[in-house]
Specification:
The structure is a single chain. The chain is globular. By secondary structure, it is α/β, with parallel strands linked by helices. Helix content is 35%, strand content 11%. It contains 15 helices and 14 strands.
Length: 485
């Protein structure tokens, strides 16, 4: 149960959600408008309006109404006359009033409570339970708070015992936070193998800079895995082109329970940063040894807070191995007076690290402001928005954009199949230099310009109207003669 009263906005959101038929809201919602994408201009069209050719069934209408009712929580994009078209959730979404209220409450507690730490410590443990629920972990003890994904991945990697000649398997398009953590092991005689993913799909081009990038499965990795493979590191959903990798299949084929590696465990370490908050996550089904993620993307929190999941089997396999940085939170026999004593001979006493769960990776001083923000948003995400509904809403938006890009002759460089692509990311094969300059000149449109083209990514606050507006931006760019890759 929640260890604090819900804030007014959270109570209001839950009340609106429970009254989900809300005829009054439907009566006050802007009427559905069919807007021709060929005539779309930034700022035109009604909220929730359809693109030409899109049929709305009852489930689509339910999702449209539901997410439109929460758009007001994001003031940057909610005004009908807003000149901001924010399509960059995969980088960092605009903040929202649920987070704002939690931060205000944190500040108020610091101002007026003589024992604020008691409130924040209770919030920390409630947030730990909510995170475990969010990713379907076995229990809250499997969750450690970290500063970010890097700290979570690096802490786990540094805890493993390595022998010269061991190898790990990574993807060529993996996030640098995953890659550099493993590359640091090369000086210890560990080989880091690189799996090429660029060009796995049709139209493959050069070394990661052209062609369609596809998701990977166990068969993709099989040529790279042998009896000296100790670990596989990859994201469940890639930041690069929105690939949704078959991590569950990879864990089943090569993980510790697969019996396919001459009895030697292969640990699968996953980055969930582009997954948590955008779609349901089940780490038990994924079968990973550990997973790390930051909370400032799908979970909309301020930067500076992440989480690390360590499966019970992985925690047992690690045993008493210390993490690279040992905080007093990791010590099981920490003296109550915080004075570390020695033995009779003048040396230090024995240090017993926590072996159960993930707490040995946690530092004593973490961002409690981030914790209370995460607590508020996790409640909102799990109990009001709903992970399944968020995924369905985002998939609808990326599906509509993909369809319109097909009509305009703009290629998508990530996977096209629903089960192999991110719900929230589309990467458009457009010349980065020319289109980047065009968007900077236009102003107001927020996407990521990367090596592949334009990465468009949606959040819960986006709508069909946003897709329509962006299609208008694309059409005008094409009319200017900007190139398609």
């Amino acid at each position: 149960m929640v260890s604090r009263p819900l804030g007014p906005l959270e109570n209001k959101a839950i009340a609106e959600h429970n009254h989900h038929h809300h005829d009054d809201l439907q009566n006050n919602t802007s009427h559905t408008t069919t807007l021709s994408a060929s005539k779309a201009q930034v700022g035109e069209g009604q909220e929730g309006g359809e693109l030409d050719g899109e049929a709305e069934d009852s489930e689509t209408r339910r999702l449209s109404t539901k997410f439109q009712s929460h758009r007001h929580l994001v003031p940057l994009v909610s005004p009908p006359d807003s000149d901001v078209l924010f399509l960059n959730a995969a980088s960092a979404p605009p903040s929202n009033l649920v987070i704002h209220e939690a931060i205000t409450r944190y500040s108020s507690t610091a101002l007026y409570s003589s024992t604020p730490q008691l409130h924040w410590q209770a919030a920390r443990e409630d947030t730990r339970r909510l995170l475990a629920r969010c990713i379907n972990a076995e229990d809250a003890a499997t969750i450690a708070f970290t500063r970010d994904t890097t700290e979570g991945l690096g802490g786990f990697i540094g805890c493993l015992r390595w022998e010269r000649g061991d190898n790990v398997v990574l993807l060529d398009t993996e996030h640098p936070n995953q890659v550099y953590g493993w590359l640091a092991l090369r000086e210890r005689g560990v080989e880091v193998r690189r799996v090429r993913t660029a060009g796995l799909g049709e139209g493959g081009g050069g070394d990661g800079d052209g062609g369609r990038i596809d998701a990977v499965d166990a068969e993709t990795l099989r040529p790279y895995v042998d009896h000296r493979t100790r670990a596989i590191g990859l994201s469940t959903i890639s930041f690069d082109a929105g690939q949704r990798h078959d991590v569950a299949g990879i864990s089943a084929a090569f993980g510790s329970s697969s019996n396919n590696n001459n009895g030697r465990d292969i640990l699968v370490l996953a980055d969930l940063t582009q997954h948590v908050g955008f779609a349901p996550v089940d780490v038990q089904r994924l079968g990973v040894a550990a997973a790390a993620f930051s909370l400032h993307k799908g979970l909309n929190c301020p930067t500076g807070l992440g989480a690390l999941y360590v499966s019970p089997a992985a925690a047992a396999a690690i045993g008493s191995a210390p993490p690279p940085i040992v905080s007093m939170s990791a010590v099981k026999n920490l003296p109550a007076d915080l004075v570390v004593r020695g033995e009779g001979g003048g040396g230090w006493g024995e240090v017993e690290l926590r072996e159960e769960g993930a707490r040995r990776f946690e530092h004593a001083n973490l961002s409690l402001l981030g914790v209370v923000a995460a607590q508020a948003y996790l409640r909102f995400y799990l109990e009001v928005l709903g992970p399944e509904d968020v995924e369905a809403h985002l998939c609808r938006l990326t599906g509509l954009l993909a369809r319109e890009c097909g009509r305009l002759g703009i290629p998508l460089l990530g996977p096209r199949e629903a089960g192999r692509r991110a719900p929230h990311i589309c990467v458009l094969g457009l010349d980065p230099e020319g289109w980047g300059a065009y968007l900077r000149e236009l102003g107001g449109v927020r996407v990521t310009v990367n090596r592949l083209g334009l990465r468009v990514s949606f959040g819960f606050y986006n709508s069909v109207r946003d897709v329509t507006r962006f299609v208008g931006v694309l059409e005008r760019g094409l009319a200017k003669g900007l190139s398609v890759r």
